[in-house]
Fold this protein.
Amino acid sequence: MEELRFIILEREREIDGERVTFTIPLTVSSTGRVWGYNTNTKEYHEFCTHHHANPRVVNRRPNATSRYMQVVFCRHYKGRVYYFFYAVHRLVAMAFPDICGVLEAGYDVDHINGICDDNRAVNLRCIPARENRHNAEREKKFRAAMEKHWSDPAYRRKISEARKKSWAARVKS
């Protein structure tokens, strides 16, 4: 069952010596979908997925280095455009603190199953940054070990096809 919650983000920027506050109203679902309010059409629209083959759609895209989905907001002020980037999993964690846990300073949002695109609220948890880095290191070591084994032709012949597929699915995520 998809649950929707309304949140308001406020970002401050210093522009020409003055502090300007930008307000971004959002609706976030428990399944990881995000809707923003379009002030021109006076309606909400869902942010769509960005594909590398179609770079014109820039409002929701995977980060090139971390593979996390991001939402990009633009606001106009005094003839200039300002862009704000938010990770979708952080927005879901902010909207659903009762499910994910409270996002405090020094805490990161972790995907429980390790899949970066799975931004459901039940798959997210707020954990200390130190523990999150430990999980990333463990996953990195696992991937390196699997790549080493796969590069050995003698070992590759011993692995059954079913195990190869299950390991490949884990390495790709």
Summary: The CA atoms of residues 57 and 106 lie 33 Å apart. The chain has five helices and nine strands. Residues 49-60 have pLDDT under 50 and may be disordered. The first strand starts at residue 4 and ends at 15.
